[in-house]
Amino acid sequence: MKKKILLTGYIGYKNFGDDLLFEIAINRIKQISNVEVSVVITNSSVDCEYLYQYYPDLILIKLNNTIPAFFYTKFDKVYYIGGGILFDYSKKVNTSKFIKKYISNIFRFKIPRLLGTQFGGIGIGIGPYFNSRSLILHKQILSSFQILGVRDNKSFEYAKEMNIKNLYLSNDLSIGYEKLPEDDLIDLSNEIIICPRSYHHKPEYEKHLNELIKFAEFLEENAFKTHWVFLQEDKEDLMKKITSSFKTTVWNPSKMSILSFISIFNNAEVVFSSRMHSLFIAGLVNTPFVAIELHPKLKYASELFYKNPIVISPLEDIEVYKNAFKNIKIKKFNKSNLENEKEILNNLDLKFFEWINN
């Protein structure tokens, strides 16, 4: 009988970071014989058929918004492949909603585990939280996990506070990605890549988008070439504003390969970004980068590549961006933290491989 493995996370939404994590996870699973691999998408309208290019035998399961009770009992392993999947910016969760979710978690996680389904996750982001009830609900979920690797110190603190067992501080799977462009294929474009995202969780942080536009205008007025690169389609008004004024590339897995998209970063002069996976990719191909800290994970990612990274608050003005551009050119990479993290991640990956394979 085939072992049934369910991969879950933010899969199938044409987000580069999550597609990269999916490719890494699926390539690992390909090493296991006699398995049936499924992915669950909780939005039946999403066009996620592009995932077949990574694994033609994949079973795609589309649901309407929620995971039904006992759904996970269909699988031997439920594998969370990474990403920030457990957080809540709500200031309050009312009592009826809390009770409903608490009971739902019993049927979705606790009972399946008692019936033999095993849960695990690697490179998981936890938090932030602004109410105690969401913390309780997510503790209820994570306490069902047989093994859990979290990607940053803050996530580790949350998990420790939840008293989660078999907990490991590792990192995102993408830091060990090895299918990078060959050195002799580099075609330097001397472009300044700007890789932003809107952030509706904190409306005041949208300021960084306006400052980046002003910064890009400043660069182009001074004979620099800019290239706006989006890891995922963003808000319609933002996309319209950027595409009408600047060279723009949006990750499209139906038309691009992971390697061709990474090559954009490989050929750039500098990257300014508020997206974590773009920092990982820039650092891996040795392109200098400046992080815009929408979330603590941006600073944590930067510290893998620099001893004292340049990290900009999203509330800063254009002058800070100009100074960062001047200083990043003379800043040297220091990847000792990265090498340590890779070793930790490799060790945890072996544990996960054993967990999936058993």
Automatic annotation (TrEMBL):
Residues 15-294 form the Polysaccharide pyruvyl transferase domain. GO terms for molecular function: transferase activity. Pfam families: PS_pyruv_trans. Keywords: Transferase. The keyword Transferase applies. This is Polysaccharide pyruvyl transferase family protein.
